[in-house]
Design brief:
The complex is a heterodimer of chains A (216) and B (258). Chain A has 216 residues and is mostly helical. Chain A has 8 helices and no strands. Chain A has a single domain, classed as Phosphate transport system protein phou homolog 2, domain 2 (Methane Monooxygenase Hydroxylase, Chain G, domain 1, Up-down Bundle), CATH 1.20.58.220. Chain B has one domain: Rossmann fold (3-Layer(aba) Sandwich), CATH 3.40.50.300. Classes of the chains: A mainly alpha (216), B alpha/beta (258).
């Protein structure tokens, strides 16, 4: 095989996106667990992981610039390199939003104002979308990307339900406004994370087919 | 094959089922394509794939090769150039060619350019104008205006190549074929020739054979990929380098070939 080093660099780039994806999944999972159980210890441990993500994101950026400048990738390789850069930016935003979630437990005293039923549903669907958008990218599975992105509608609907419910609760009892606002933010963060998963799905479709689609 | 660009609105060159043999060996197999007017069409492919053989069919350079047999049609401006009554000299005036190695005649810069027009019977008093205009079009006039009588071989490689382009332009062709025009040149001379080619497409139809894929990507509007004597894929350059339809094209342009 000619251009062996080049192919190794492409594989390595894919590996790095994979690692960043796994780290994002972990941070998202733990911040959700921390906020649901109001587990301040777990939240702090999660916050401490953010710097690792920055290092990995920078590593991906550097590999992308190196590949573009030194190897001039074409066709599918070019799409891979561009998708990797876009996906790493989406993952970085997902981590940023998860970090926002992990900051909530420290701010809530005592218990939640209500059991987090719909919010947990939102988180489950979002976790599914995150896992499968990455899988779709790594395996270049267009159908999986489209299927994962389609679940964004469910997240949006639940966001609306949670929103209305919390507003009504606050209207009835103003003493809960502070805690309820954090839950509003939480649902908003989840809704945004799901949107970034859709972006990842779009990149996965682009890589697999070279078609630019809007799945959001 | 990409049907959408296989037939173009105003083709300058139409090739239909072109086959070529060198003795027993078939070098081109059923090539059909249409070259759009006032555009740059690049032909890429590994060595021996037939791209140079193909380009040489467009001004019947292969006539000079012994045991070379051709079947199929090449229409230029709707005229079959392999027709019985075609004047090959006139054809080659219409379809100019620039080669890999700069090949100026061993005479002055001026005479190199005047050579073609003189043979074609230009009026003596018009020669100065033609030489200057050709040199200007090839972006060589500024560098040579004070030494037009110097030997062409005293020019640098890049200048010699631009001189060869000027020499081609002097007989007012409609089409210019470039066979690896920059492979013997340094990056700066290459960039000059590339710029020049892109300027020339305003007035000429250009077909270029190149081993340099980045060059094809940079300067051409259409790209054809040849392999083992077949035209595997032909399409807009953007599409070919962004999302080729054929796996074999993809393998070649991403370096997975071989």
């Amino acid at each position: 095989m000619i251009r062996k080093r080049y192919f190794q660099q492409l594989d390595l780039l894919k590996e790095s996106v994979h690692s960043l994806g796994e780290m994002s999944e972990l941070i998202f999972h733990d911040s959700m667990e921390a906020v649901v159980d109001l587990n301040v210890d777990l939240a702090r441990k999660t916050l401490a992981l953010e710097y690792k993500v920055d290092i990995l994101e920078e590593k991906i950026e550097i590999s992308v610039f190196d590949l573009l400048a030194l190897q001039q990738p074409m066709a599918k390789d070019l799409r891979l390199v561009v998708s990797a850069l876009k996906i790493s930016a989406d993952l970085r935003r997902i981590v940023g939003l998860s970090i926002n979630i992990a900051k909530i437990p420290d701010k809530i005293e005592g218990e939640h104002i209500k059991p987090l039923i719909d919010t947990k549903k939102m988180a489950d669907i979002t976790a599914y979308m995150l896992e499968n958008s990455l899988k779709a990218f790594l395996t270049q599975d267009e159908a999986l990307a489209r299927e994962a992105a389609a679940r964004d509608d469910e997240v949006d609907k639940l966001f609306h339900v949670v929103w209305v419910e919390l507003i009504e609760m606050m209207a009835k009892d103003t003493s809960i406004i502070s805690k309820a606002t954090y839950l509003l933010f939480l649902s908003r963060y989840l809704e945004r994370i799901a949107d970034h998963c859709c972006n990842i799905c779009e990149s996965a479709v682009y890589l697999a087919t070279s078609e630019r689609v809007r799945l959001n | 094959m990409t049907e959408d660009v296989k037939k173009v609105a105003q083709p300058h060159i139409v090739v239909e089922n072109l086959n070529l043999w060198y003795g027993e060996k078939q070098a081109l197999k059923n090539i059909s394509l249409q070259v759009p007017r006032n555009s740059v069409t690049a032909l890429i492919g590994p060595s021996g794939c037939g791209k140079s053989t193909f380009i040489r069919c467009l001004n019947r350079m292969n006539d000079l090769v012994k045991n070379c047999r051709i079947k199929g049609k090449v229409l230029i401006e709707n005229e079959d150039i392999y027709g019985a009554d075609v004047d090959v000299v006139e054809l080659r005036k219409k379809v100019g060619m620039v080669f890999q190695k700069p090949n100026p005649f061993p005479m002055s810069i001026y005479d190199n350019i005047a050579y073609g027009p003189r043979i074609h019977g230009i009026n003596k008093k018009d020669i100065d104008g033609v030489v200057e205009s050709a040199l200007r079009s090839a972006v060589l006039f500024e560098e040579t205006s004070d030494r037009l009588k110097s030997p062409a071989l005293s020019l640098s490689g890049g200048q010699q190549q631009r001189l060869c382009i000027a020499r081609t332009l002097a007989v007012k062709p409609k089409i210019i074929l470039f066979d690896e025009p920059t492979s013997a040149l340094d990056p700066i001379s290459t960039a000059r020739i590339e710029d020049l080619i892109m300027t020339l497409k305003k007035d000429y139809t250009i077909v270029i054979v190149t081993h340099n894929m980045q060059q094809a990507a940079r300067i051409s509007d259409y790209t054809g990929y040849f392999l083992l004597g077949e035209l595997i894929e032909f399409g807009q350059t953007r599409q070919i380098f962004h999302s080729p339809k054929e796996k074999s094209t993809e393998d070649y342009i991403t370096g997975r070939f071989g």
